[in-house]
Amino acid sequence: MNCAVIGLGRMGSAIVYRLLKAGHAVVGYDPSAQARQEAATVGATIVSTLEECAHHAQIMWLMVPAGPIVDQVLRELLPHLNAGAVVIDGGNSKFSDSIRRFQELKSVGIEFLDCGTSGGLHGKEIGFSLMIGGDIQAFQKVEPIFTAIAAPQGYGLVGPSGCGHYVKMVHNGIEYALLQSYAEGLQLLNEGEFKDLDLAKITNIWQHGSIIRSWILELTHEILKKDQKLEKISGTIAESGTGSWTVEEAHKQKVPVKLIEDALEIRAWSRESGGNYATKLVALMRNAFGGHALGMKNPPK
Ligand code: 3PG
């Protein structure tokens, strides 16, 4: 299929890579020269306008930061799209924005799918987990695109418009609590009753057969193998907004989300106070799976 990928950051480039590998004809667009250059290294044909994207393809995969940029791209793209074109927002947009965009595009004959994309840096090789919301006809029309990008069995239509980003938002809320939980346990082992425990060894044992083995734990083990003291690591944890949306939504629906809320508050506390051993670990985990920037307390000279 012909597809254009708009936004060629880490995730966008990985999407291009997987589409090309599956034999699709892909063009990529990004206003940043550096992003364009990096995407060219995975084999993307780079175009310099959104108009060219629309000339090449009737399937547009958006991988741009959530918020007004998505609307701006859609405004510029729209005059060049034909009826029946499908726009897929694969970023972390707010689900209510996605419902609005679906309706706006539908009124001019353009299909819109919202797609929560999980997998971070490693999705490039092993495939992503894709949670898709929208009309089934549009989903079926572009399904080979999802098959190419996803891990085996790692995609599906989860509900109507907005539902893909809603499910991804909740996925991220779960992620906040999970990261914090691993990190707190490891802080207790590091600072508790038994001194000088080998946390790399312990996390490796946990990875083999234990109930709490996981991808996050595997990455945490790799982190601890390199450095267990974390003295030079900043304990401040950033966030992209999905965790606080999860809590807001849960409050609206009167569903208790105590652990997710605590994890969110600890992130805010870490940014005020500089954090502790556990928040350093969470920051390192985000960096390991998502490439999210890491502050260094004493940056190397
Ligand atoms: C993401 O989905 O981009 C992150 O992996 C999780 O969200 P965060 O950036 O808010 O931690």
Detailed description of the structure:
This protein is α/β, with parallel strands linked by helices and 301 residues long. The protein starts with a strand and ends in an 11-residue tail after the last helix. It has an eight-stranded mixed sheet with strand order 3-2-1-4-5-6-7-8, with helices on both faces. Helix content is 52%, strand content 15%. It folds into two domains: 2-161, Rossmann fold (3-Layer(aba) Sandwich), CATH 3.40.50.720; 167-290, N-(1-d-carboxylethyl)-l-norvaline Dehydrogenase, domain 2 (Orthogonal Bundle). Helix 4 (68-77) links the parallel strand 4 (59-62) and strand 5 (86-89). The protein has helices at residues 10-21, 33-41, 50-56, 68-77, 95-106, 123-126, 136-141, 143-149, 163-191, 199-207, 215-226, 242-252, 258-273, 277-290; strands at residues 2-6, 25-29, 45-46, 59-62, 86-89, 111-118, 128-133, 150-159. Helix 9 (163-191) packs across helix 12 and helix 11 (215-226) packs across helix 14. The structure holds 3-phosphoglyceric acid. 3-phosphoglyceric acid binds at residues 92, 120, 172, 175, 239-240, 242-243, 286, 290, 292.
